[in-house]
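Model the whole thing, not chain by chain.
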Amino acid sequence: MEIPYNVELREDTGLYNSKLGIWLFLASEIMLFGGLFSAYILLRTGAPVWPPIGEHGSILHMLKETIPHATFNTVVLIFSSVTMVMAWVSLKQKDLSKYKVYLGTTILCAIIFLVVKYFEYSHKIHEGFVPSHDTYMALYFTLTGLHGLHIIGGIIVLAYLLGPGISMWSSEPERFTNRIEIVGLYWHFVDLVWIFLFPTLYLLN
Amino acid sequence: MSNTNMTHHIANYRKVFIFLLIGTAITVWASYMEFNVQNSIAGAIFVGLTIAFIKGYLVAANFMHLNSEKKMIYWILLLTIFFLILLLFIPLLWDLNNMSNY
């Protein structure tokens, strides 16, 4: 049996089903990250000193050192959002070769983001700033770790749509274009979360 | 969507990209500034979060096409934001309740 409303719009919602599905999923994601941001605000406002003073020296000094990495990652993620939306535009223009270039660039940006994050984590752990060090570090690793998992999930889906999943283009081009639109919505959400994580965790301390 | 429409979209995405880069630069700059609000970083937090909200709006409105979406999506998001605000305020209400016991 064929799944209905893959391409055509439902009369009651005015949407195709997977678009409604991804927005409901993103709503749950807003609550997930919202809960963690709520924890951050409460712990920060309740702390006598922020970031807490730990045994491995000044967290503030360590944070200042990592601002260039985080800024670079912010630019990379913003750029990946542009290439993601351009991949969708390319399909709308029926240009598969451009789509491949843009989606490939998006995946490359995501990998660069994770590599920079790896070096950042290594530096922090090497200096003794592990999650158990203090409340700030616990929040830092929880929030950036969860965000990183979302990036990894995104890479897997994007790689599928660039690899085996691309075969749908020849049989159902409109459905494939819709798939790229909804995976794009997810990817922009991941970028959106980072836009708030970046000042919260790195700059405003 | 027609090709002309898409050309318009592409020009818009370019503009948004540049605005997002400028916003990022201002956020980083603001974090180094001394706003001198009662010897605290309240000024930097205000500037930083305001820019983050503007950047968030730009991404949601343009890349996620929320500036021209169906009503159903707006209702889902409104409901989510309502519960998000509730989630943020529940601990505060609990705190106020505790304070009355002192």
